């Protein structure tokens, strides 16, 4: 073996074999990065002003002020929490039929397309944009937030539920069908038992998301803790803002922990 | 499930035992009661006349929104470019910060399970709990309006997302490959580079692209609170009640979201 | 070359995996380590390069007391011990060459390794061992594209490129078919002879061990209960290692062993097929 005697070079094989494409992509990425960074026009005077506020905000995290806005915070939290619960329940109730309707393997084609388009509409619209429109229609307050979150829940849950149903084991569905039962008993004995644990897990997850989103919709007037937060930030009351953020983080942590326990029990 | 033998010697079957049945009912009852209670509290201040009036309002707004004002399109090209940059640069920034955090948070790579790991997890949870728009609200107030606030807001929110999924991926790697590399006499950082990094690379790329796609979606609305991008135009159009303009902006946002979702799906598909 | 003195390992849960093992392996000798599952074979091998920390006793590699080494010293000592694993333990997503070069990690700095800029001498070594295990055609393939036997040969190459004094081999044939198993065992034994390498080979297949190694050590419940040449492994010795059983059928020669494996395989196939056929009818 001459090869083994003569020194042989070795370089790792590049990720993209074609050198033109490889160097082209690298160059393109570099140009893009330069252009993109160029669009970031920073007003340094303003940033320097902001440093002080930033320090106050970080200080606020270390010493949050719960007291001066306590009534607003309580009111906002009550709105957020009630909005979260009701919108999740209503969202689930609507998502189940739509999710079933959007599962290709158990419904006729026309139903499938209708349900899939409902999901697509709900998923492609941002919560905050929906909230803006709903506030314009039903007025300020948590009811608009409730509608927004219910609407968003439908897109999320139905899609995942439909995908779960499409993934179920066809053998057990067939076994139920073979007993001569109708569509509804097929659903309740063959399909739902298989997707139930996942559905419960997803619903808990969505409960969590709805709470986090409830803090957002308040910014455009749809009620909840977001409104309180918005006011606090507008008035540069960073210690109150930090208190609210800490509350949100705390509630999310508690709810994630609880739902992980419930999920373990269900599965 | 419970099977009981009845007095006549036959077997009766119930899905649950009597106790479980009761508990099940109680849980449902509590759930319904909670929902009704929340509903009552939430709707206390609702003015129902407005709500019943909503269809009329909707029809009114809908009527004003069509047709979209196509001539406005050139005005939103620059904001669209800004939006893209906010999402991309924000994702990049988040990647740089979240990778070390993920290694500190993963049980099998953290220097200390008792001290460092909880701190890293806390950072991840905090970042995940606060929506990008709220971070933007804060940053606009601190740094002033503009793209920079948007980029940092997107990054702050993405750290938790990327960090969480990445540390879970690190915890799931095959420990035997790590053992084999450290058995050759490799140092800790070398083992990381040769045994752990190759294993998490596909997950990492997938997570980043996925988050980039979500960030495009989120950065379209950051402008509503002043953090740059196409949302600024949406905000000003809404304020001046220029509904045909709003329609056009929404259509452009929709198109951007659909395209970025398609790109991200293609890339993730190619990686796996 | 390798000397164990009173080596013991007790796991945190109280399991005593090794109980005062004394063993001496001279250079160039291939030792087959046999014993029932849970006898401590794997723990013994892992204690030697301290992937598992021993609880008691001393280990010497040449003049170096491995059990007394600090972190840096251990790294250097590990370079002298090549390890070959049960399910290959290759880094699946790296190429064959990268896997082999990972055997040189103990000799190069971090950045050289990160950018794959190994010294030419290391690359020459890697090509030489790849040639020895006949994998020259697969240098830039990814490890997960290879067959089981090829992967194990990459594993061997990775251990050899370390230029070790001893090979620690953990069930090298457990996931291979009978023919490949024998090829791999033959390769390991030949290489040890060529390079005058000592080796400890964990192996559960007694017949295969008898075929290739020069010395057999039997472990049971963490103790050495047999130590001698393969020929002296009689039913009494097997009973001491594995417990009471009719051993007359185990003492087969090569051909029979292979026949048996064949039979077992086809039986398994029949077992799988039976319900399929029933369904077809």
Automatic annotation (TrEMBL), chain A:
UniProt xrefs under CDD domains: TM_PBP2
Family from the record: Belongs to the binding-protein-dependent transport system permease family.
UniProt-annotated location(s): Cell membrane
Membrane topology: Multi-pass membrane protein
Short name of one Pfam family: BPD_transp_1
Protein name: Phosphonate transport system permease protein
Gene3D superfamilies the record matches: MetI-like (1.10.3720.10)
Membrane-spanning segments: 20-40, 85-107, 128-155, 175-192, 213-233, 239-258
Matching PROSITE patterns: ABC_TM1
InterPro entries reported for this sequence: MetI-like (IPR000515), MetI-like_sf (IPR035906), PhnE/PtxC (IPR005769)
Keywords: Cell membrane, Membrane, Transmembrane, Transmembrane helix, Transport
Source organism phylogeny: Bacteria, Pseudomonadati, Pseudomonadota, Alphaproteobacteria, Hyphomicrobiales
Automatic annotation (TrEMBL), chain B:
Chief place of localization: membrane
Subcellular location: Cell membrane
Keywords, in A-Z order: Cell membrane, Membrane, Transmembrane, Transmembrane helix, Transport
Topology in the lipid bilayer: Multi-pass membrane protein
CDD domains (alphabetical): TM_PBP2 (cd06261)
Positions of the ABC transmembrane type-1 domain: 80-264
Segments traversing the membrane: 22-42, 84-106, 242-263
Gene3D superfamilies in the cross-refs: MetI-like
UniProt-listed NCBIfam families: PhnE
Protein family (similarity comment): Belongs to the binding-protein-dependent transport system permease family.
Protein name listed in UniProt: Phosphonate transport system permease protein
Automatic annotation (TrEMBL), chain C:
A single GO molecular function term of this UniProt record: ATP binding
Keyword ATP-binding: yes
Alphabetized Gene3D superfamilies for the sequence: P-loop containing nucleotide triphosphate hydrolases
InterPro entries: AAA+_ATPase, ABC_transporter-like_ATP-bd, ABC_transporter-like_CS, ABC_transpr_PhnC, MetN_ABC_transporter-like, P-loop_NTPase
A Pfam family per the record: ABC_tran
Record-annotated ABC transporter domain positions: 2-246
Keywords, ordered alphabetically: ATP-binding, Cell membrane, Membrane, Nucleotide-binding, Translocase, Transport
NCBIfam families noted in UniProt: ABC_phnC (TIGR02315)
UniProt similarity note: Belongs to the ABC transporter superfamily.
The protein's name: Phosphonate transport system ATP-binding protein
Organism: Ancylobacter polymorphus
Higher taxonomy: Bacteria, Pseudomonadati, Pseudomonadota, Alphaproteobacteria, Hyphomicrobiales
């Amino acid at each position: 073996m001459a090869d083994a005697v003569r020194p042989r070079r070795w370089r790792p094989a590049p990720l993209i074999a074609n050198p033109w494409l490889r160097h082209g992509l690298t160059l393109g990425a570099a140009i893009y990065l330069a252009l993109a960074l160029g669009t970031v026009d920073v007003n340094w005077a303003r940033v320097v002003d902001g440093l002080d506020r930033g320090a106050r905000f970080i200080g606020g995290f270390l010493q949050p002020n719960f007291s001066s806005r306590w009534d607003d915070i309580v009111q906002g939290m009550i709105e957020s929490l009630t909005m979260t619960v009701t919108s999740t329940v209503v969202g689930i109730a609507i998502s189940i039929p739509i999710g079933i309707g959007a599962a290709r393997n158990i419904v006729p084609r026309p139903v499938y397309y209708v349900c899939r388009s409902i999901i697509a509409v709900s998923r492609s619209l941002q919560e905050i944009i929906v909230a803006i429109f709903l506030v314009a229609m039903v007025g300020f307050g948590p009811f608009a937030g409730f509608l927004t979150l219910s609407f968003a829940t439908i897109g999320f849950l139905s899609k995942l539920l439909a995908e779960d149903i499409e993934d179920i084991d066809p053998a057990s569905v067939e076994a139920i069908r073979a007993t001569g039962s109708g569509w509804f008993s097929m659903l309740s004995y063959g399909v739902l038992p298989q997707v139930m644990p996942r559905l419960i897990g997803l619903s808990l997850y969505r409960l969590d998301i709805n709470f986090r989103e409830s803090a957002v919709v308040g910014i455009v007037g749809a009620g909840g803790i977001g409104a309180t937060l918005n006011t606090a930030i507008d008035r540069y009351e960073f210690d109150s803002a930090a208190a609210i953020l800490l509350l949100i983080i705390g509630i999310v942590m508690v709810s994630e922990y609880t739902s992980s326990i419930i999920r373990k029990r269900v599965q | 499930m419970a099977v009981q033998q009845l007095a006549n010697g036959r077997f009766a079957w119930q899905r649950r035992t009597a106790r479980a049945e009761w508990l099940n009912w109680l849980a449902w009852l509590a759930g319904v009661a909670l929902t009704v209670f929340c509903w009552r509290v939430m709707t206390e201040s609702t003015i129902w006349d407005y709500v019943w009036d909503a269809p009329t309002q909707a029809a009114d707004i809908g009527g004003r929104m069509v047709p979209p004002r196509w001539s406005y399109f050139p005005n939103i090209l620059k904001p669209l470019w800004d939006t893209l940059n906010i999402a991309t640069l924000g994702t990049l920034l988040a990647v740089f910060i979240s990778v070390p955090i993920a290694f500190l948070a993963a049980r099998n790579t953290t220097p200390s399970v008792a001290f460092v790991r909880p701190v890293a997890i806390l950072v991840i949870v905090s970042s995940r709990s606060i929506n990008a728009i709220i971070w933007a609200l804060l940053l606009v107030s601190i740094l002033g309006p503009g793209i920079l606030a948007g980029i940092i807001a997107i990054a702050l929110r993405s750290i938790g997302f990327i960090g969480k999924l990445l540390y879970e991926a690190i915890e799931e790697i095959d420990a035997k490959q790590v053992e084999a590399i450290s058995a050759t006499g490799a140092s800790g950082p070398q083992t990381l580079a040769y045994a752990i990094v190759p294993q998490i690379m596909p997950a990492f790329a997938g997570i980043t692209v996925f988050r980039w796609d979500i960030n495009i979606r989120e950065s379209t609305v950051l402008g509503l609170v002043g953090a740059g991008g196409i949302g600024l135009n949406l905000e000003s159009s809404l304020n001046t009640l220029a509904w045909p303009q709003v329609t056009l902006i929404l259509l452009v946002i929709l198109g951007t979201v659909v395209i970025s979702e398609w790109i991200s799906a293609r890339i993730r598909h190619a990686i796996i | 070359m390798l000397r164990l003195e009173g080596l013991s390992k007790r796991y945190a849960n109280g399991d005593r995996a090794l109980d005062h093992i004394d063993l001496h392996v001279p250079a160039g000798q291939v030792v087959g380590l046999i014993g029932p599952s849970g006898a401590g074979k794997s723990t013994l091998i892992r204690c030697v390069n301290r992937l598992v920390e021993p609880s008691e006793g001393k280990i010497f590699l040449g003049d170096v007391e491995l059990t007394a080494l600090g972190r840096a010293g251990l790294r250097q000592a590990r370079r002298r011990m090549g390890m070959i694993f049960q399910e290959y333990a290759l880094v699946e997503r790296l190429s064959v060459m990268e896997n082999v070069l990972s055997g040189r990690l103990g000799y190069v700095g971090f950045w050289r390794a990160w950018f794959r800029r190994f010294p030419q001498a290391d690359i020459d070594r890697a090509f030489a061992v790849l040639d020895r295990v006949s994998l020259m055609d697969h240098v830039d393939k990814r490890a997960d594209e290879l067959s089981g036997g090829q992967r194990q040969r990459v594993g061997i190459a990775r251990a050899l490129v370390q230029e070790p004094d001893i090979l620690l081999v953990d069930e090298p044939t457990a996931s291979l078919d009978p023919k490949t198993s024998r090829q791999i065992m033959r390769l390991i034994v030949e290489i040890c002879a060529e390079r005058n390498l000592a080796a400890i080979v964990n192996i559960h297949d007694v017949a295969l061990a008898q075929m290739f190694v020069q010395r057999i050590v039997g472990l049971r419940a963490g103790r050495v209960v047999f130590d001698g040449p393969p020929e002296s492994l009689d039913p009494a010795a097997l009973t001491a290692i594995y417990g009471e059983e009719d051993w007359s059928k185990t003492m087969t020669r090569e051909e029979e062993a292979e026949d048996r494996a064949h039979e077992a395989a086809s039986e398994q196939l029949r077992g799988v097929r039976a319900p399929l056929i029933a369904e077809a009818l």
